[in-house]
Structure of Nucleoporin Pom152:
Amino acid sequence: MNATPRFRSGYPETPRTVQRSHSQRTPDTAKLPLAPENIAADPGPSQPWIPLHLIDAPTQRFWVFAIYGVLQAFKLWDWKTVADEGVGSWGMFLKWIILDFAYVFLVPELRIPWLDISQIATIYIYLLHLLFNWFAMFLIPIPVISGLLGIVRSLYDSEISVSEHNVKVANILSNQSHIRGKVTLNILPEGSAVMNPDHAPMCLSSKSSVAIPIVFNATIPAEIEIIRIDLDTAQDEIIKIPNREVNKLAKLVRNQNADPSSDGFRWDYSPKKPGIYRLGKVLDQHKLQVQRQTLDTYVVPCPQARIIGGKSDERCIQDLSDLTLEVTGTPPLKIHYSRTINGQNQAFHFQSLQPEAYSSAMVVGSESDNERDVSWVRPSTVPVRLNESMASVGEWEYVIDEVHDKFGNAVYYGKPGEDAKSTWLQPLAQRFTVKERPKVSMQGCDLRNPLKVAKGHSATLPVALSLPAKNGVSDTSHEVTWAFSPIDSLTNSGSHGDLVTIGSFTGKNSKERPRVNQPGLYTLKSVTSGMCEGQVEEPSSCLILNPVEPSLTLRTEEIADKCASNSIGLRVDLDFLGTPPFLVRYEYTYTDKDGVTHPTEAQAHRSDGVRSQLSLIPKVAGHYTYTFKSIDDGVYVRKPLSGPEMTIEQVVKPAASARFLGTKSRQVCLDAQVETEVEFIGDPPFTLEWEIEHEGKRKTHRLNDIQQRRFAIQTPPLTKGGEYNIALISTQDVRGCRSFLTEQIKVLVRRQQPRAAFGLVDAKRSRMEVEGTRVRLPLRLQGEGPWTVQYRNLNSSSEPVRDRIESANGALLVQQSGTWEIQEVFDNQCPGIVDPAASRFDIQWYPRPQLSLVGSDSLNYKAGNTWTKADICEGDIDGFELNLQGSSPFNVDYEIRHKPISGSSSMSRKNFDAALSKAAISMDTGKAGDYTYKFHSLADKNYNDKSPNPLIVEQHINARPTATFAKPGQTFKLCAEEQEHEETIPIKLAGHPPFFVEMEVKHQAGAAPDIFALPAISTKTHGITIPRQHLRQGSQQIRIRRVRDGHGCSQKYENNSPSVVVHLYDAPSIYPLDTREDYCVGERIAYTLSGTPPFDISYEFNGKWNAKSQTTSFRRVAEKPGDFVITGVSDKASECRAAVHIPKTIHPLPSVQISHGRMSHVDIHEGGEVDIHFDFWGTPPFEFTFTRSSNPKKGQRSVVLETRHDVSYEHKKVIKASQEGTYEVVAIKDKYCSFSTQQLVKKDGR
């Protein structure tokens, strides 16, 4: 295929090959690719925009990249300009994002081979350019951008010198010829080697390693031997460090020696076995012995500890802990452990732990190897017993925290987790659960209070248990044992006799109790719960008895009537045998005088003692039979009673009696009569005495010859309120026996009748309301609700109205005016009365509102209800007042019609609220023309009515005059002195002449504005000439302040009204920014200019020069020494030239040479010294700073060790030196100038 491919990605594919024509066919793998531009063109849309036959592809790519390079070079220049100003620039940012957008998106459209990138790649490339523009043009500090800015500044950093050509300040100041020469002084060192210089303790364990530090000072080792003394055999072992490791060590030492600040090289040796280590032999690179200290380093096994405890993790209170702490290490040892009781932690420690026959004598180095003793270094095991009494209940835990040996080696153990039984924690912690011991006693039973049990029944032994909780549950298993003696084997003192047996009971929880069925003495012996044996507390004994069964003996006696001889009841004496209290159950039945047998009824009688009496007095005459069925006592229940003596028969004729039927309490109205029914017992005819008691007064009534057994009695009217008691006093039947009665009923009589009256509203019984409103007439009712009230309107012929009122402070709803009267009232029970003084209530309607004008001199009556107001100027304040009659507040609706001088009319509607009887109307004077005010609606607090005859007010408004500049915004130039022909400022006027115009001059300097007037202008166009006394140097704004016409109407203009600008120019001037006259080469001489740029500056420096300045600042770099004098300056605006004389003197930079400007090396021994010569050029006195740096070593940088400052009043100076290092001058200063090798060249304003 011969078409030029169009690639989708940002990288082109490998161009396809085209077969060359040869006489012999070559294989496909031998074909060479053609450049994309040499492939046959495809007439499709993928062809380059510039045909390849005009400009080939490589040339097009070259120009694309050349244009890109030029654009980026200009961008870097703009970037440097922004950086010099120190403020980000939106203009530069927008400029370059537009140029980058045009370039990046235009290149793919050219379809140049290998530059035809995809749309996505184009967007990514543009975003990268956008991001760079953002960081560069807004000076965002990024290290990469800052570095690039430094490169750009190095390329473009040039300024104009006093000779009017570009120079780089860095080139002027970086002249190394000002400071030359250097002296290097070497002092030969002496080496040493020290093992473990800090005497740090060291120990070995299976889980940790240790490193012994060896410090080499000023020496490079070539051979190292270490001696180890075995702790078990006390024999020496020579350990020779392999040459490979020594060579590696020597290389590291050489590298560090290049650093003059290093004190020595530290090398760590890792021992494999415990022992006593010391340095044996150390040779340096010259095979000479290195000075060493023979200090011993003790490497011992790390101390360790563990807890040896019992097999069980449960204890009872007051048990011993029974633990052993086993500590292993080099004695004397120290162990820290903690004991936690229910979360409360306490720390303990033991120290000076050592075996009994231990000796810690240390052997000095003078003893022979056979005599030296290292046994004191060997580790030993010391057991420590912990046998504490566990006096608190809860969780106990012992934990080993840390252990120390003689040398200060310490092992710290982490705090164990919650699972203290895990394998790795078991030797370090021991946890116990300490439980309370159980307690047992007898509850509610002892020798004085025996437990009574029925014969043949079992009872629960009253054992009180206090068991310890297990896993938060207090119901645990337990075992109780006791001693038992039968009742007939007890001694006279109540103790156990010869016959004693031991009993036991095992319960699954604390609620289970042993049960026993034999009478005798039970004494508790022991109690056990879990693994804890408990305590037996008093009382510990309980006596169990079998009491005798209950029985009953009856004796009877008739109860005779005192008046007649017949029996009215029976008195029964009850004799009990058994254990009180007693309960006897009996039944009775009877046959009345008519031979009717009534059903059996059951009764019961209770007695707390062994003797009691029961009275059986029936209310109805007849034959009665009583049968006693069973008996209960304190031990036995429902023991049956049998035999003829348990049955009693009797014939009864009861005495006369009477009682009330119905309720015993009643409520009645005042003056009401009470009727109640009475039931009689006995044989008629009956006689009844009864009484009425009220407020301590009684009145007795008697009724005779009553034949009915039920009779109704009626009281006289109860005329007083309060509580009445109606009581039965006595009654008699046919036998004439009088019976005393206690029956009574209570009657509550209302103390007053219900009452009704109208309530007060604002201390009166009348109201003013809006016509047609539903009005609430307040009521004041007395009695018990609800009430029924009848009322009517006395001013109307309508029928009375009845309403139901629920509340005592209710109200009547009416919707008619007039006088309303209450006629009747009833409460829920009684009729009432109406208060005649408060039985009437008046309702009246409010009058409707009215509107009228308040008269004034400016109002004239026209016709009907129309008035006219005097003419005024447009925008003046005017108004009139209205009289408002009615109930405030008022609301007035009106409309305003405006007919302008030219154009169509307009209408607007308005309204306002008024709280008083007068209201002021502000008239609309905003536009000239005729105004008509029409008031058509008035509403007050009560009514909202439209007036059938609206009120109308008319007024004419005169237009205000205007004054404007003919060319607003124009700028006029004036000189400080008045000219013969000056330009005037034209204005235009509108209105009725003559005109009066007031002008304002606003100065740019912020001073108070000047005001001047132009009176009696008779034309509508005029030219203004401003007097010089109202102008200031520079720019000022002229505006029209006020204008008045012949009608007296005036117009005042605001501060933002159109204006013109007047510039008053003066000759420019130039001032130096620094008052000094002496400058140094490389410094900038800067001036500030006053006037309008651009400026033309004349100066002399080795000839006459002219310079241009586009800004108000002028700056030149002092390139060489000489005299620099400013002679004149002019600007563009005034074109006036000012002659000045500002002289400056430029001095050369001072110079210094050390060792005649050569690089010299001097070697001395420690204690020697050498002379260092300094030569100076410049103006004395000279102040100079020189440093002493470490001698440079391979791979290391030199470090400044010392900096010194000195003064020379001559051009030569000699200083003696004895310390090693490199001496060089870093700064020089003469009378006027200074130079330093460390100074930074900075741009102005940077």
The radius of gyration is 66 Å.
